[in-house]
């Protein structure tokens, strides 16, 4: 299979961009539909989904590590090795997913208390987490399969599946929220069923694409094969990435929990902001995702200089898109927000924060492709260390000092996040410019190919 033709930046970007954009539009429709239940329901979905993001990073060790190793092996012309990595990653995801799903289903009340959800939202949150959390195995499998398929250069398949999954989800929301076709109005309970059901359908389709993603069709017997050295290679790349993702996501849960103590209106405003902000950087994030695949492939092929330059091409286009989108959001934010809520206090908070987004979102875009590119060349430990130290000291600590202690509420939260993104961006930029890992690692990869060494 010739993957080189599929590894151009824009060839990788456009399906990812369409997928993210349509997911955003459908996710916005999802929030809009849930808001017809109540602002409380929106707050429940917001804090629960933030919690689920923290849970899913448990699988980042597998999906992220496997994705980079697969791209590197394909770049080095070792497709059979990449195929083995893909099979092992899927089996491991299912095994861990079963354990996590059962734990979330049984221990729901413990997690609701941990999130410091306002008392009036307690019952709704518990119900939503129990159902959607019980389906974590499906969510994790969808994530892993999508990552593996994209790493082969096929970004169109996951795009089409994601679009179909979200359309099914919206249809399910419509049926259960509004009681369409004579069915009962199940509200947030119905939304949770729709979420899990649509993901299950996506899993079935992705599994079919996954088995056909390599030159040799993946057989059922392949799922019984485990190669410890390969697993160690995935862990070496994936473990720091998992810790880094966990640090970021758990820090966001902690921040969300602190926002929850500010009251239901502040929590609802943060949830609406999450939806609106997705518009600012989703296209830019597609460049960050694409450049990770491309850099890993080029790095595996020993093309060090091209790997280095490709980052800056992605960074330029990503920043351009993010800045334009953020300006549009700032200009039309009040009009857009009016479709979600008529609460004047929530609207006032959101509009004030959108001004800070003019600084925050470009800084986020600065960070994303730089961090992804460093991960793609195996410099995952540096990204992890910078992330853990700066996120918790600046983002979380700043949220407490500025948001709660100083009484600035969400404005304090966003100022802390701006400082966090700026410091991390500066540090990873310096690391990439230094190119400390590229010469040594690329030379080693070239030596391996020269002697025809097989893993």
Tags for this entry?
disordered C terminus; 82% helix; mainly alpha; 455 residues; single chain
Give the helix/strand layout.
Elements: H1 9-35, H2 39-56, H3 60-75, H4 79-106, H5 108-114, H6 122-134, H7 136-151, H8 156-178, H9 187-211, H10 228-260, H11 264-300, H12 304-337, H13 344-376, H14 380-405, H15 410-434, H16 438-450
Helix pairs in contact: 1-8, 1-11, 2-6, 2-10, 2-11, 3-4, 3-7, 3-10, 3-11, 4-6, 4-7, 5-6, 6-9, 7-9, 8-9, 10-14, 11-12, 11-13, 12-13, 13-14, 13-15, 14-15
Structural description of this entry:
The protein has one domain. Helices cover 82% and strands 0% of the residues. The chain is built from 16 helices and no strands. It is globular. Residues 442-455 have low confidence and may be disordered.
Short description:
This protein has about 450 residues and is mainly α.
Strand content: under 5%
Helix content: over 70%
Mean pLDDT: 83
Shape: globular
Number of strands: 0
Overall domain count: 1
Order of helices and strands: HHHHHHHHHHHHHHHH
Keywords: Cell membrane, Membrane, Transmembrane, Transmembrane helix, Transport
Transmembrane segments: 7-26, 51-70, 90-108, 128-148, 160-181, 187-210, 230-259, 279-302, 314-337, 343-361, 382-402, 408-427
Protein name: MATE family efflux transporter
Organism: Paenibacillus aestuarii
